């Protein structure tokens, strides 16, 4: 039994819910050596910045229990080189591309959105709100609803109407629902969560931080419970807003957890470092799990864990398929 | 997995991996999953390929020192356990067209990858000499094999327990002069590669070094393994040692600036913006 | 070489820095069957509440990668039974006891502090701020500096001057330093971090949350990078305030990470579930690590990872021991 | 660890553990660490002790079904691997002073722990009869041993592949009446324990059940394994099944309310306060 895996970010249809996480798929070309990127829902780029960035000094990574700390610092070629080389490469191959953008000021995000406006092949724009706000003593935008909403509103205002704007949230906040709601009120068409919570490890040999940058972002299965909780809370509060769930997805089971919590798409990040084929494997495993539970459409299981414990699950096989 | 053996301070694992052997070229490395199912260790460990053999459709051997939990786990593997490898990864050593004289410089387990290079060089008619060093005798890898393969082999140990007391860079100038070396190939700790590069630059001969940086992916997508390298255009970039390396021309690597972002590197922080991602 | 492992919470001396984490050592009697509780720095009680509490329904636990989700819901006998039976049992055995308290209103915390005031054998009071504030739509006190400070100030005001008040913080906030500073300004003598961040997992068989309560607190090594980061940030901002570090300590190496980040004591929680002897093992391993690095006093390594990378570490063995 | 064997749908592991054997009494369980060093699985898995033997200073055997990653890992252990056990844990079965007639009711792997109880009962001169059931024949554990030990043995399977088609509770009333049972000992799924308790209550004979709740610690410190049990004073409390159980008098367990906090339990929420901790 095959499952209709199509899913939607606003009006944009994805062939299936498995996408890459921002900053975890290089420029696309590296992964393309392992599998056909056209077979996943979408590729998300690293966060593109206005100027080229050299990033943070090394060591940039440290392993933690079931997790990975990274402090890459948005190394990248800058928007000009991205538009000149990386995006056309993806567009030529018809790879659905979500472009992630990062900035230090509202103006920078807005300028980036403007640059992307005429570029062909942008399926959606994901706004990485986990960047420090230079105008507010380096406080990360994502901490705070108002700061996040300001960025989103400005990006939404300049971005073409048919390109969804996705707000990417961080768990490092007092209340994810408040930030999510502010972003949606500010015009976000979809939400994506979670970006890496801030972590740290110390090398007990050198008795110094393991990362040159001191702190870094924590990813991998260690953060999955935080991520599932965020998706769950936001879905409960804003049931109609599409959510891209991510954080520690290694298998189809993990992806299913996010779908059941309310995500309509699932991003794979750190898992790619271990298994370059992870996206296709996750997709296959997810489809098998959905099918094994008697469903023929992914859409029917999104958010299913929110039903009251006693309620019976409606198996779509009980019904006539309605033509979509 | 096929066999395990211990060589002095090192462990060597031979794994059946025809897919890797097929595409192998000297200088390649593999990414090895450690800890088994449901492990808490997420990242693959990188190991240079020491040797490939045609047995069982193709086997790969790598040599390693126990360094932390991942290598400790590997050291506990037994014959017939299975191992999860990705590879071959990285850019291999470029080989000269002409039959020139090459000095192979290896430090600690870094020597392990040099024999495949030496083999390829010899098949092209190159003369090969070895300079191998380590802290102590049991940490010098491949001395016997070097003696068999190389025209000459010079060994150094810091404690003097084998060969000359000192470092490879102490004896390298002499060897280069003696054998009229045309090129140097080196693999070992960063500090050694820096010294070897300095020597080669002094003699004005090309030097190819295989570097080691902490890697989370090994396939070019995570951007954690970067170091400052000067490009053909003279611009320093933070390049990935996993896909643009691990082999670089020594004089292009800014060894003094490894672990920093040189102020003149492309995209070096000016505005002081700082990011989590 | 033996190490002087003494450490201080305000004016209270602990024989060594290893304590149990609140809610992870039962009433004490359970662990006492495995080792002499007098040999650890202190035992922290579960969070004591005014009334007896039956807690949350089961399932109350779920395993996650390198982590554990729990939703116990502060099950306990209430302060009367605690003072009548559990505290005297500990006091009779001269077990240094940190009493954790939890409440739903400022008044409840204050009333608890008053009840503890005359009780003998209270080495310190730890205020569990991760409780929902009934008067503020169930928002957890620890999210917010002002709410936390109000609780701490009230508790400090009624508590005997010689009993330190420790504020226990949660990482589920926009800025741990803001909350920490507010607590110290409110009168906290020490800080303890981290309490469990909120997490969730979904059972993909039943397609429902694994825990009856839906969400639960995440503990274990998975959260250690978050915990070390919190300790690091607070130590950097408030270098003189004693910190009890906790979150995923399984070994002496892990405890050392917290000490280097700036904690003067380290609590062991989830590890006790796996190894009832964990505290003594962690203590022994920690002492060995400190000694192996050439130090003879724990005090000399607290916060050592904050030195600039180039700086040489001063080995106390280079100096004459000064009588303390 | 000593030996591993497979028994129908189950795996059995025998481990040398003299310290546990010394203090063992029927009904005890062990906490087993799973996944090896650097595993991502933090909690021990609980298994009832099936058998203890004096060999090698004392061995413990437990029987398990593969249920998830932890038990899958255990099933992969080989002879001579080592295993990390804590135990014996829990409150054992109370044994009657007088030589009475006892019916042992086991469901699925729950049967495994009953043989040690039956043995102790027989040594006190009790008559022992068995009722064992499961979903299918390969999931009925210990039928042979029951036939050897018990005066009578009645088997049930839900699919009828062995013994009577149905559940243990279908045949239990008949057995109790036939053997004039004075007491019932039961271990198996919660649903079965509830049914068995109902039957015993109807016959007005005491019933001891060994329950199974999710446990994070097994030693009484984490408070995750609670269920509502009525105390001697008539008050329902959420008691820990690891240290106050797993063996309870069946009629004291509020089976209908397992997984809830009954409104009349001591400390049941009234004010609606809710906590993370
Ligand atoms: C291209 C390349 C080739 C290598 N070849 C060999 C070899 O042939 N033989 C050998 O013994 N070692 C080799 N190394 C080093 C080897 O990868 C590390 O010793 C190993 O990863 C340590 O893992 P661990 O779990 O024991 O240590 P841990 O310190 O616990 O490792 C934790 C994390 O840090 C990374 N890491 C730690 N040390 C290093 C290091 N020196 N280099 C890169 N990553 C590191 C690990 O991959 C892991 O992600 C090579 C490294 C690279 C990059
Ligand atoms: C007192 C007691 C005695 C038991 N005796 C046996 C026995 O003799 N043979 C046997 O096959 N099984 C027995 N069980 C059940 C056994 O503990 C679980 O099957 C096992 O823990 C599942 O682990 P897993 O990793 O395979 O599954 P997972 O579902 O992945 O386990 C995840 C977590 O949930 C816990 N868990 C899951 N299922 C159960 C369960 N049914 N009971 C308690 N904890 C659970 C695990 O301990 C672990 O912490 C017993 C349980 C208890 C409480
Ligand atoms: C090395 C690395 C680089 C990342 N870079 C970005 C980035 O540029 N922009 C962004 O929004 N998120 C970035 N992230 C966060 C991921 O997109 C993702 O949100 C997070 O890692 C959780 O998913 P995972 O556990 O599957 O990795 C990065 C994560 C990692 C590990
Ligand atoms: C089962 C359980 C119960 C807990 N109960 C409490 C509590 O009553 N009060 C409190 O302040 N913290 C409580 N905690 C949090 C711990 O004290 C500790 O802050 C946290 O678990 C991190 O440490 P760990 O990873 O070593 O467990 C509890 C944690 C667990 C796992
Ligand atoms: S290791 Fe990931 S880019 Fe090089
Ligand atoms: S399992 Fe921890 S109290 Fe029972």
UniProtKB/TrEMBL annotation, chains A, C:
Fetch the Gene3D superfamilies from UniProt. Answer: Aldolase class I
Per its record, the protein catalyses:
(S)-dihydroorotate + A = orotate + AH2
Query: Dihydroorotate dehydrogenase catalytic domain location, by residue?
Result: 9-289
Q: Where does FMN bind?
A: 128, 168, 194, 220, 247-248, 269-270
The processes (GO biological process) annotated in the record are: 'de novo' pyrimidine nucleobase biosynthetic process; 'de novo' UMP biosynthetic process
Residue spans crossing the bilayer:
none
The UniProt keyword set, sorted, is: Cytoplasm, Flavoprotein, FMN, Oxidoreductase, Pyrimidine biosynthesis
Among InterPro entries, the record links this protein to:
Aldolase_TIM (IPR013785), DHO_dehydrogenase (IPR050074), DHOD_1B (IPR033888), Dihydroorotate_DH_1 (IPR024920), Dihydroorotate_DH_1_2 (IPR012135), Dihydroorotate_DH_cat (IPR005720), Dihydroorotate_DH_CS (IPR001295), Dihydroorotate_DH_I (IPR049622)
Which Enzyme Commission number(s) are on file for it?
1.3.-.-
Tagged with keyword Cytoplasm: yes
Give the residues the record marks as binding substrate.
Answer: 70-74, 128
Catalytic residues, chain numbering? 131
Primary role: Catalyzes the conversion of dihydroorotate to orotate.
Q: Which family does it belong to?
A: Belongs to the dihydroorotate dehydrogenase family. Type 1 subfamily.
> What is the name attached to this protein's record?
Dihydroorotate dehydrogenase
Please name the source species.
Planobispora takensis
Q: Which gene encodes it?
A: pyrD_2
Automatic annotation (TrEMBL), chains B, D:
UniProt keyword RNA-binding, yes or no: no
GO term, biological process aspect, one:
pyrimidine nucleotide biosynthetic process
- Requisite cofactors: FAD; [2Fe-2S] cluster
Pfam families registered for this protein in UniProt: DHODB_Fe-S_bind
Give one GO term, molecular function aspect: oxidoreductase activity
- Do you know which InterPro entries this protein is assigned to? Cyt_c3_hydrogenase_gsu (IPR012165), Dihydroorotate_DH_ele_sf (IPR037117), Dihydroorotate_DH_Fe-S-bd (IPR019480), FAD-bd_FR_type (IPR017927), FNR_nucleotide-bd (IPR039261), PyrK_electron_transfer (IPR050353), Riboflavin_synthase-like_b-brl (IPR017938)
- Tell me the cofactor note: Binds 1 FAD per subunit.
**Ranges for the FAD-binding FR-type domain?**
1-95
Query: Where is [2Fe-2S] cluster bound in this sequence?
Result: 217, 222, 225, 242
Q: Which SUPFAM superfamilies match?
A: Ferredoxin reductase-like, C-terminal NADP-linked domain, Riboflavin synthase domain-like
Which keywords fit this entry according to its UniProt record?
A: 2Fe-2S, Electron transport, FAD, Flavoprotein, Iron, Iron-sulfur, Metal-binding, Transport
Q: Which domain of life is it from?
A: Bacteria
Which positions does UniProt annotate for FAD binding?
Answer: 45-48, 70-71
Question: Family, per the entry?
Answer: Belongs to the PyrK family.
Specify the protein name: Dihydroorotate dehydrogenase B (NAD(+)), electron transfer subunit
Q: Which organism is it from?
A: Planobispora takensis
- What is the taxonomic lineage of the source species? Bacteria, Bacillati, Actinomycetota, Actinomycetes, Streptosporangiales
The UniProt gene name for this protein comes to: pyrK
């Amino acid at each position: 039994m095959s499952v209709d895996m199509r899913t939607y970010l606003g009006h944009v249809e994805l062939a299936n819910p498995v996408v890459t996480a921002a900053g975890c798929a290089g420029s696309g070309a590296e992964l393309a050596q392992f599998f056909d990127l056209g077979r996943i829902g979408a590729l998300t780029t690293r966060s593109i910045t206005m100027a080229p960035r050299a990033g943070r000094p090394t060591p940039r990574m440290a392993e933690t229990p079931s997790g990975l700390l990274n402090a890459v610092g948005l190394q990248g070629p800058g928007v000009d080189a991205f538009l000149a080389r990386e995006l056309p490469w993806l567009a030529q191959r018809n790879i659905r591309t979500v472009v992630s953008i990062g900035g230090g000021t509202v103006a920078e995000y807005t300028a980036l959105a403007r640059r992307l406006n005429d570029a062909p092949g942008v399926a959606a724009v994901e706004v990485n709100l986990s960047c420090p706000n230079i105008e507010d003593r380096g406080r990360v935008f994502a901490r705070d609803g108002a700061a996040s909403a300001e960025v989103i509103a400005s990006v939404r205002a300049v971005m073409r109407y048919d390109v969804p704007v996705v707000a990417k949230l961080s768990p490092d906040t007092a209340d994810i629902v408040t930030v999510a709601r502010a972003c949606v009120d500010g015009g976000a068409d979809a939400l994506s969560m979670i970006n890496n919570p801030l972590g740290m490890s110390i090398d007990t040999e050198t008795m110094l931080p393991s990362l040159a940058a001191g702190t870094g972002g924590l990813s991998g299965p260690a953060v999955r419970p935080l991520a599932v909780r965020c998706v769950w809370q936001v879905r409960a509060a804003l049931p109609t807003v599409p959510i891209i769930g991510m954080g520690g997805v290694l298998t189809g089971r993990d992806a299913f957890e996010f779908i059941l919590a309310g995500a309509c798409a699932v991003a794979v990040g750190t898992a790619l470092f271990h298994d370059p084929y992870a996206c296709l494997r996750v997709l296959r495993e997810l489809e098998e799990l959905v099918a094994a539970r008697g469903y023929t459409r992914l859409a029917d299981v999104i958010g299913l864990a929110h039903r009251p414990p006693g309620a019976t699950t409606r198996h779509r096989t009980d019904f006539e398929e309605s033509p979509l | 997995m096929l066999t395990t053996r211990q060589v002095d301070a090192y462990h060597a694992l031979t794994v059946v991996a025809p897919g890797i052997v097929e595409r192998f070229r000297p200088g390649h490395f593999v990414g090895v999953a450690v800890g088994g199912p449901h492990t808490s260790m997420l990242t693959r460990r990188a190991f240079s390929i020491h040797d490939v053999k045609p047995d069982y459709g193709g086997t790969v051997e790598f040599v390693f020192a126990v360094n932390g939990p991942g290598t400790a786990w590997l050291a506990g593997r037994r014959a017939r356990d299975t191992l999860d490898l990705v590879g071959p990864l990285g850019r291999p050593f470029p080989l000269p067209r002409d039959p020139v004289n090459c000095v192979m410089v290896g430090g600690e387990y870094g020597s392990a990858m040099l024999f495949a290079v030496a083999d390829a060089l010899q098949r092209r008619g190159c003369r090969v000499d070895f300079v191998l060093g380590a802290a102590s005798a049991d940490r010098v890898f491949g001395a016997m094999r070097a003696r068999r393969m190389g025209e000459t082999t010079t060994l150094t140990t810091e404690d003097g327990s084998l060969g000359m007391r000192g470092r490879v860079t102490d004896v390298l100038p002499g060897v280069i002069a003696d054998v009229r070396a045309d090129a140097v190939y080196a693999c070992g700790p960063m500090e050694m590669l820096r010294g070897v590069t300095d020597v080669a630059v002094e003699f004005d001969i090309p030097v190819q070094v295989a570097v080691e940086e902490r890697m989370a992916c090994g396939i070019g997508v995570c951007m954690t393994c970067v170091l400052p390298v000067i490009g053909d255009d003279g611009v320093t970039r933070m390049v990935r040692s996993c896909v643009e390396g691990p082999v670089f021309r020594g004089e292009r690597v800014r060894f003094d600036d490894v672990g920093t972002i040189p102020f003149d590197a492309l995209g070096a922080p000016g505005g002081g913006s700082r990011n989590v991602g």
